[in-house]
Design a protein that fits this description.
heterodimer, A: alpha+beta, Jelly Rolls, eight-stranded mixed beta sheet, 19% helix, B: alpha+beta, Immunoglobulin-like, 3 domains, 11 helices, 17% helix, 38% strand
Chain lengths: 658, 660
Amino acid sequence: MAFYKQCVRLAAAALCLGGVARAQSVDELRAQFPGDYAVILDYHSDTRFFMEGDTPRAETKITEKLMILDDKANGEFNKYAVYHGDFNNMEHLEAYTDVPGGRRQKVTDFKTEDAADEEVFYDDVKKTEFDFPSLTKGAIAYVSYTQTEKELHLFSPFYFIRYIPVVHESYTVHFPSDMEVLYDVKNDSTRMIHVDKDERGRDHSYTFTGDHVRPLTSFANAPSAAWYEPHAIVRLGAYKNAAGQRVAYLENLKDLYAWDYGFIRPLDSLAGALRPADAPLPVPGDALLRSLADSLTRGLVTPEAKAASIYHWVQTHIRYVAFEDGLEGFIPRPAPLVCNRRFGDCKDMASLLTTLLRMAGLQAYFTWIGTRDIPYDHTDLPLPLCDNHMISTFRSGDRWIFLDGTDPNCIFGFPSAFIQGKQALVAVSPTEYKTLRVPVIHADSSGVTDSTYIAWTGSGLTGTSSVYYHGYYGSDVRDHLLFKDTTDARDYVKYRMGKGSNKFILNDYSIRYLDDASKLVNIRAGFDIPDYGKTVGSELYINLNLEKFFTGSAVIDTARRKVPMTHEYESTIDQFTVFAIPQGYELSYLPKDFTYSDDNMDFAIHYVQKSGQVICQQILADKTLLMGAGDFPRWNGAVKQILNHYKEQLVFVKKTAP
Amino acid sequence: MKPVALLSALTFALAATASLASAAPAPDTVFDYTTPVSWPATPKLHSVPAAFGDASAVTVLDERSTEFRKEGDGFAVYETFHKIIHIRDDKGIEMFNKMYLPVREGSEVSNIKARTVTAAGKVIDVTPDKIKSTTEDGNEYRQFAMDGVEKGSEVEYYYEQKRPFYLFGSEFFQNGQVPCVTARFLLISPPSMQFSAKGYNGFTVSPDSIIADKRIIVGQEENIRDLPEEKYSFRDQYLSRVDFKLSYNRSGDGVPVRLYTWRDLGKRAYAFYTTHTDKEDKALQAFALKLPEPTDTSLGGRISFLEDYIKTHIDIDKKLTSADGDQLVQVLTTKTANDEGIIRLFARLLLWEDVPFEIVLASDRSGIPLDPDLEDWDRAENVLFFFPGTGAYMDPTQDGTRYPYVRPNLAGGRGIFLKSISLGSYTTATATWGMVPIAPWDSSSLDMEADIRFSGGLDTLLVHGRQIMTGYGAAEYRPIYTFLPKDKQDDANKDIIKSIGNSTDVNNIAVHNPHMTDAFHNAPLVIEADIRCPDLIENAGSRLLVKIGEIIGTQTEMYQERPRQLPAEMPFPHKEYRTITLHLPEGYTAKNLKDLNMDVSYPDMGFTSSYTQTGSDVTVAIHESYRTLRYPLEAFDNFKKVINASADFNKVVLVLEKAN
């Protein structure tokens, strides 16, 4: 899934880094930025697009000036890191501190090493680190370096947000007048970014400036910064070559596709279905792959059944390991190699899937896609920036099924949860592509059905639960159990089944994997919850909402949070709690039912009294993947209502002797 | 102290005999001195003992050797590593289909071999082109992915490493996840070079023996279980391991020369931290003359002031990019220092200020404590200053600690105290073992006060809460108010206050004594606020159920634990005293106040709760304390009862009834 990780990481690195300072005193700045210990006075990114022979390139000079406003957080700002890689090498790194009183101290020691990334096993992203000297109050730290973009298709967007406040920043792209340069400004509803275009003479430029930018604040369940932080995306649409001819670069999706296709061309052309079955085998291992495809589809009739069988094999036999060294980050490896190794990254798995499906006589295509971290569509923004992932798309008649080899428990027919709603760029042929919208799977298709039977012990509850997980929930449970040994699995079951209080004691349990196609899982468990419920005198109080899906902390602080909330997938929870009325007691108070519904959520609590039992049904449907800040007040209102209904206890009284 | 810096000045000269100071193995232990570490030509699959049946992967064999060889005028160390791991499930595959081989500093790695033997017995070799070199956080690795790893397969690898000569070594053979069937270790040296070796936690080590003109020590253990981390424990000291160090030079004809004792370390460390060049002294004088005057001129006040000034004006960074971060001129010029540099600066300034001190090489309770019997200088890396004039300690390398509090994991264990002695103009130090005491339990608190009223609609508790921290309790939180900007401080305050009643509806926050130097007089750090807690009232018909137990915040529980392996050890002894005052709404009475009474007490720990009622005001006093650092395995059940008592208090619900 970490395909194209480099450009995303380099962009993220740019987010964490820091011209021309307008002279302001420390005291003035302290008054302007109360409570902050340092500010970036000026952050300037100055890019020049130019031709090197017939290849467009870019060189960017970054300069950053940082001022220390207080000695308090001493040591917090000294360490500085610049990230760079094969596509984006760094030169002319210079750094110094202007110490109050006029002395300049240059940085002389720099250290470069690999920049570790949890998701990628190996890549070529490097980090150069150094320490600014003498960062005491009033000191100004200065850093500058240049970065050369070898591959202008991967030119990074410019984000204005940094880790501390910024007084002023600017981003300029210079280009020759015979280049056609396009730009997009994203997430700037407050018009923070000011754009200046200079299109006179032979050297044109676009400049984007911003003042007084507040630093990044992180929120729980937030999408990536690309969804809400102001940024500018500049791209080269076309240029003139040495012969003076106009060459389209990234003007439209056709251009992007032509570039993308170059990475898969060798594989796409030799993959099984494009070649007659009796043609000579071009790569070692091809015969083995064919026999694998045959064995996986033998006896199966429908294309769907065959595709499902192949998909399942890849999901369960190929592990995700990502190598992204230079072009390794872009070019899928040949299917026989991936199959033999039993590991690969997303594009390797797409390569194996596409090849096996084609060998089985099915229609399958390499497909570029962005995960939900990326808010753009290829059709709006024809840039590699739109993708960070690759899958295989299988076609059966009018049906297009998105197969993500990296998701070991994804249901055949479901997209992996993290690409729902995204635009897929499907490689139909060397010149033909399709853009398809990946479906969002409806809340009804993923969920939990929980039947819990409880009885009063005199000082708490004892009971059993049988819980069915289906759809994405089923996949999730299987994912979690996949990498757990017996003791870890028990902890996970306790976490999943736990209710009432943290005194929930898990007794015997069983896990049944019921239907592999729908990933249906059933967990049954016996349990005790000592000290749950209360008797006072002749009365017994029990709250039958053993699991409360909301607490006071679900109320969103709307004054602070303007960032949307995400869910991994839509889902429905249907929970029945059946309480056996204890011998000698009768029900004296049953709370009222409650129902709530809006575009984002359905919620209900129903109570029913039956012979010797009270049944509480709690229903929750999460019906959206992304809730915007505009919906927060309504959400808070709903949560408050739900919390009020969660307060309701049932009251039972001891029957008096007749 | 970073031994590399310290040892760079040392030279190893071989000259002359005595006995070994290694842990004696059982008399019937048989050691195999001969089998070399090797790479079998034909690998085969192994069966795994039934006792390890649940493990995701089992190390069938973990054999390592370390050989010291003479090379030219000096010595080099040749190490070999060979491991076979049997893969049992998907988690095992995930753990071992990617390999990271650590390359020790200055080493050359060679002859890397790796292969997978599939469940069907097919051998897939890792070819050299698949092996990548990487550097992360200053550490070098060779990394590669293993092809064909599946359930029932085995992963095997071997490599050799040539390292620059070193004096102290340690090899661990136990971890938290993967049990090991056979672990072997060979320590080989020329006859003139005699090492001490000691096995810990089940690893047995042989006496040394001269075979074929080589001195050999063998270490071994069979069937090493996995030892996962447990709550309230510092596990690493309990892992199976061998430590070794060069102890004797037997190269001459005379008496063997004893080498690298704790006493030697004391002298060298003291000299390293306190000796300065004239140039350094000049820079230091210029700096010291500009130091502001402390307001509190008592000895403790002066120490506290000096520490705070340095830590507020010099960037202390263990991983400073510059290698000169231990040179005082550079430190004072750039206002940046590594750990050695800041210790040297403090030592020199304390001498300048005429503050008597001892340098303490302290054990880290969270790591491997120092062992008087096995002089591993590498483990003596944590330096504290002890002030005989006040009896208190200072932690020089931590910008987040202040006198008289040090990192609590460096207190409560043994340390080596380096005390200067002067003979004429020559100053050196004596090294003696002693305990670094941890502050008494009642000086470190995580106390709480809550004053609770009811909202007009009787649907919300209106709480005025105060979190009151002292000692190590406060030391954990004070850095928030120095290192975080104001908006992040506000977030942190809300998080701290949220533990009262688990509500995010927090207003009117006030913080008292947040300064780092407030530690000096142990002034309580108080964070108080108004909190609205709607979740803490439930309704049962006409009755109100007040979840008063949740006011103390969700407490750690140990209701359903796996069988305990390790004794309990606290980060620091402390108390958690809480006072809750509940103002009952007019006309209501509480039906079950007796539920507030709890008593789970033992001599060194306890949780008690009791209430008093005055009119409509109910006051609950809760006293929870852990008065000592360590609770042995025999006392673990009682320890668990105390931990669970506070979690049980969370479940106390008061039933309020309106009088007719």
